[in-house]
Design goal:
The protein is an alpha+beta fold. It is globular. The strands form five sheets. Strands 3, 4, 5, 6, 7 and 8 form a six-stranded antiparallel β-sheet that branches. Strands 10-11-12-15-16-21 form a six-stranded mixed β-sheet, with helices on both faces. Strands 1, 13, 14, 17 and 18 form a five-stranded antiparallel β-sheet that branches. It has helices at about 1-50, 60-70, 80-95, 120-125, 145-150, 210-220, 240-250, 295-305, 355-360, 405-410, 415-425, 435-450, 455-480, 480-490, 490-525; strands at about 80, 95-100, 100-105, 110-115, 130-135, 140, 160-165, 175-180, 180-185, 185-195, 195-200, 225-230, 255-260, 270, 285-290, 310-315, 320-330, 330-340, 375, 385, 395. Strand 10 (about 185-195) and strand 11 (about 195-200) form a beta hairpin.
Length: about 525
């Protein structure tokens, strides 16, 4: 018996020792594996530096390594170097320091699409159609729009030297432009489509978006707005708080806006409107497309789930991952996915990315397809789906240019270049459409530019060419808002939105009736 107790005591001591040492051994094994991985990485980096015919810089290797690691997690975790992080913060804050011009990459250089009204470039005489040939002595040949943007932006008051090529002038025009604050408003357009219908386009979600939206709605009401088209097409999202701020202005009292759940569904948090909020009773239609993502989907999902308005267009992107922006050494950033968000009905609209980033970033565009996920119910009992974006209440096919129009518009920039030529030689009137005389001049100009247009292509695309030339004429003469207003006249999504407003109003009335009945029902149970 004593021998047994002694043996048993020794076994318990050994077991206790293993129990204590287990975590230490596991930690040691984990640290060992991590160190071996770091050693392998360092060895490969050294070999690349020694053996590669064109060795990358240490900064390039570091950047690529970090991005490769993050992209094994999900498609949206992302590392930003100094310039990328600075651009992100500028966009979020709603202003930056630059010359104040909208630019676009062009086969002849970087084209000035439109100087911003009151900006440094406009004040010094920069015009639409000017081609930036060099920036601070660096040629723009082959330079991307983003690279040019980084060169044009800088510290307030510093001077950027640019050389411009202008139609009809042989020598380059040189400008010394002091950088000044340039607003980057999220509410890009805000105007009346007709005497009772307002229109607001939000291009992204930044720190000032909610305030901008509130001011825009107030201004439109002063002009007689009774119903609103909210355009979120191509809006890739931004700051979550901005989307929440918009929802608080659109939804009724004590309504759930969005839920967030951390890893494995832990740490759930909910965001609601205030109990004292008042529903602003104007009918609402939201426009979305495949480029509508993230914060835009929070707004459209909350509006749809609460039957506050109707959603029209194409199924949205399907980004239901929440990134926390972490600052590294004050100058770089890490956008790390820390949670998933859910719409008020409980939908997680994150699209599947398990088949690789190529499939995720280049999804097959299936017409009018519902997201492949479970069904949920809105406040009024309408069926909505999770698992792949916001499915519109009124699906519309995506508009696409044919190869002929893509070639003229994007590869040759033909419509923009002709509009610059037309403005210089014939002038442009507000609201002017390209009539037969303008199209005759375009045909002659295109021949001079060696852009051969076959008779069958001309006849088949005449209407589309007239529309694009009309828009570009307004862009170069009066700014891009003038061109956009002209575009709205024939925009199928906007025309459909005007058509379905009676349905949006009927939905709103049902919603208001449900809210009025809710307190009575609760009181009867006490």
């Amino acid at each position: 018996m004593a021998r047994f107790l002694k043996r048993n005591w020794m076994w318990m001591v050994m077991a206790a020792t293993v129990a204590v040492a287990g975590p230490l051994l596991a930690r040691s094994a984990g640290e060992g594996a991590r160190q071996r991985s770091m050693d392998t990485l360092t060895e490969i980096m050294d070999l690349v530096q020694k053996e590669s015919p064109e060795p990358p810089t240490p900064k390039q290797i570091t950047h690529a390594t970090i991005q490769g690691m993050l992209h094994t997690l999900d498609p949206h975790s992302n590392y930003m170097d100094e310039s990328e992080f600075r651009l992100l913060r500028e966009e979020q804050k709603g202003s930056f320091f630059g010359i104040g011009a909208i630019i676009q990459q062009h086969d002849q250089g970087i084209a000035i699409i439109s100087p911003m009204k009151g900006g440094p470039a406009e004040r010094l005489g920069v015009r639409s159609g000017d081609i930036i040939k060099d920036i601070d002595g660096t040629s723009t040949d082959g330079m991307s729009s983003n690279a040019a943007l980084q060169k044009l932006r800088g510290e307030k008051g510093t001077v950027v030297e640019i050389a411009l090529q202008r139609a009809g002038i042989a020598e380059l025009l040189r400008f010394s432009i002091p950088r000044a604050e340039v607003p980057t408003n999220s509410v890009y357009y805000s105007f009346m489509l007709n005497p009772t219908t307002g229109f607001i386009l939000i291009k992204d979600f930044g720190e000032t978006t909610s305030e901008e939206f509130e001011k825009a709605v107030t201004h439109l009401k002063q002009q007689g707005m009774k119903q609103l088209v909210l355009d979120l097409r191509g809006n890739g999202g931004g700051i979550l708080d901005a989307a929440i701020g918009i929802c608080r202005q659109l939804l009724g009292p004590d309504q759930l806006i969005v839920s967030q759940k951390g890893r494995n569904g832990r740490d759930e948090s909910q965001t609601r409107t205030s109990k004292g909020a008042m529903l602003d009773p104007f009918p609402l239609v939201i426009l979305i497309n495949r480029g509508t993502a993230s914060a835009s989907e929070i707004v459209s999902g909350a509006v749809q789930d609460h039957d506050r308005g109707l959603v029209l267009g194409q199924t949205s992107w399907g980004k239901g991952l929440v990134q926390s922006l972490l600052t590294i050494n004050r100058s770089r950033g890490l956008a790390l996915t820390t949670a998933r968000y859910y719409t008020p009905s409980g939908r997680c609209i994150q699209r599947d990315y398990s088949h690789g980033l190529d499939d995720y970033y280049n999804p097959e565009d299936v017409k009018d397809a519902k997201p492949q996920g479970p069904a949920f119910k809105t406040d009024l009992g309408r069926t909505v789906y999770g698992g792949g974006g916001i499915n519109p209440d009124y699906p519309l096919p995506a508009l696409r240019f044919n190869e002929f129009m893509v070639d003229l518009r994007f590869r040759h920039q033909a419509f923009f270049r002709f509009a610059v030529h037309e403005k210089e030689h014939f002038g442009v009137k507000p609201g002017q459409h390209a009539d037969d005389a303008v199209m005759k001049r375009f045909r002659s100009w295109s021949l001079d530019q060696k852009l051969t247009i076959a008779e069958k292509d001309w006849d088949a695309n005449l209407s589309a060419m007239q529309e694009q030339i009309s828009i570009e004429l307004q862009n170069v003469a009066f700014g891009i808002e003038a061109g956009f207003k002209l575009q709205c006249e024939k925009d199928p999504a906007i025309l459909k939105a005007l058509e379905v407003f009676p349905d949006a109003e009927a939905l709103l009335q049902k919603k208001q009736l449900l809210q009025r009945q809710a307190p009575t029902t609760v009181a009867a149970t006490h």
